[in-house]
Amino acid sequence: MLNKTINILPEGNSLHAIFNPLDIQRVLQNLIINAGYVTESEGKVDIRIVRNDGFLKVSVTDKGCGIPGDVQKFLFKDTLTTKKGGNGLGLLSCKGIVEENHQGKLWFKTEVGKGTTFHFTLPDL
Ligand SMILES: Nc1ncnc2c1ncn2[C@@H]1O[C@H](COP(=O)(O)OP(=O)(O)O)[C@@H](O)[C@H]1O
Ligand SMILES: [Mg+2]
Q: What residues contact 61, with CB distance under 8 A and at least 6 apart?
């Protein structure tokens, strides 16, 4: 993440949720590392946190290469990686942590050549 900027942009105040900090730290770490990996030097990764009708929504946005359709299909199903030394466990375990352990949702929007946003929600207090 050398030379890359991470912006954390909470909207509104009183952001409260019940979560396991170590688990959610792992989720954020993986999403931010994935985003940083496809971000050019001096580029930015944006992190937004917004309160949304009973949920907190955290979004990690990059302007990287996007995720092609053939990779998208396997993201949450398999231990797929396109990285040398990657193990592909990241997104699969992120999905499990958020959806099975925290009653949240984790999903993404991506456009090849434009970038990707991963969103996840946590129930609000
Ligand atoms: N923000 C992103 N932009 C482009 N491709 C991504 C992004 N996040 C994940 N990917 C793709 O999904 C694959 C799986 O990611 P992940 O499960 O975190 O495993 P790993 O990071 O070990 O490869 C990555 O290898 C990469 O091809
Ligand atoms: Mg990863």
A: 35, 45, 46, 47, 48, 115, 116, 117
Residue with CA closest to ligand 1 atom 7: 34
For residues 96-108, one letter each, b for 16 or more C-beta atoms within 10 angstroms of the residue's C-beta and e for the rest, the string is: ebbbeebebebeb
> Tell me, what's the pLDDT at 22?
85
CATH code assigned at 54: 3.30.565.10
Q: What is the residue range of 93's domain?
A: 5-123
pLDDT in tens, 59-95: 999 999 999 999 999 888 877 788 887 776 789 999 9
Which ligand is nearest the CA of 91, by number? Answer: 1
Q: Is residue 80 within 6 Å of ligand 1 at its C-beta?
A: yes
Q: Determine if ligand 1 sits within 6 Å of the CB of residue 34.
A: yes
Atom of ligand 1 nearest to the CA of 60: 1
Q: How many domains does the chain have?
A: 1
- The per-residue pLDDT for 1 is 55
